[in-house]
Design brief:
The radius of gyration is 20 Å and the shape is globular. It is mostly helical. The protein has a two-stranded antiparallel sheet with strand order 1-2. Strands 3-4 form a two-stranded antiparallel sheet. Strands 5-6 form a two-stranded antiparallel sheet. The chain has two domains: about 120 residues, no CATH class; about 110 residues, Serine Threonine Protein Phosphatase 5, Tetratricopeptide repeat (Alpha Horseshoe), CATH 1.25.40.
Length: about 230
């Protein structure tokens, strides 16, 4: 087992059986953080282990969801679904890239099944995009970034924030950062302008305000390069 991980046993919230899961240690060395909050760590990628998967029934979710008692109606919906599928999940101490991708795709399928909050779907799709980013699969990274941005946009207009540690301003910034990485500077600017145009945010959430202002400056520089290239052609 990797030195950054350790195994624990936890009860599955769906089948109730005790399953082995892998936790990552908190002392990881950060190398850099991308605009959309994707953190790159030295020698290890904890996102591979973000999703816990029950080795008995195949239920998959992030740690917080896994450790929370599910409403009986939700549990029954998932249990009935699993009874038809009979998933054969092999427990592995060290996950490969395909293992990590499969765990996220499985977790996303359950979110769809129970009509989970849009913000939850957005976060899950964005984290899967980060895994594709590390693997160098730009096409799938961008596909999941687009989905994450769409879910966050829908969430901002229909869900009440804050959701966990995420405020509506922070969610708006994330969407802007996603579009920046996608090269859609117009949509990026639309989201960032709503942040830096609100002076109340400067007082209430100075860190997000500063990040939005800095990214806005980067957008302006990219636009200048694009305009200059267009004139030359």
């Amino acid at each position: 087992m990797d030195k950054h991980c350790f195994m624990v046993e936890k009860p599955c919230p769906v089948c109730m059986k005790t399953t082995r899961v892998i936790k990552t240690r908190s002392r990881l060395v950060v190398e850099k953080t991308d605009e959309d909050f994707c953190v790159h760590y030295k020698e290890f990628n904890p996102y591979y282990y973000k999703i816990w998967v029950c080795e008995h029934c195949g239920f998959a979710a992030d740690e917080k969801t896994f450790l929370t008692k599910l409403p009986e109606r939700t549990r029954k919906t998932i249990w009935d679904f699993l009874a038809q599928k009979k998933l054969d999940i092999e427990f592995t101490e060290e996950r490969t890239l395909p293992d990590a991708i499969a765990s996220f795709q499985l977790a996303i399928s359950y979110l769809d099944l129970i009509h989970a909050p849009l913000s939850k779907k957005a976060s899950m799709h964005l984290q899967l995009a980060w895994i594709y980013r590390e693997s160098g699969d730009k096409e799938l990274e961008e596909e999941y970034m687009h989905k994450a941005a769409d879910f966050y946009d829908q969430s901002l207009s229909s869900e009440r924030y804050p959701i966990g540690p995420l405020t509506d301003t922070a969610a708006m910034y994330v969407v802007g950062a996603i579009y920046y990485r996608l090269g859609d500077y117009e949509k990026c600017a639309q989201h960032l302008s709503r942040i830096i145009g609100d002076q109340a945010v400067r007082t209430r959430e100075p860190q997000i305000f500063d990040k939005a202002r800095d990214l806005w400056a980067d957008v302006r520089e990219e636009k200048k390069k694009t305009d200059a290239a267009a004139k030359k052609s």
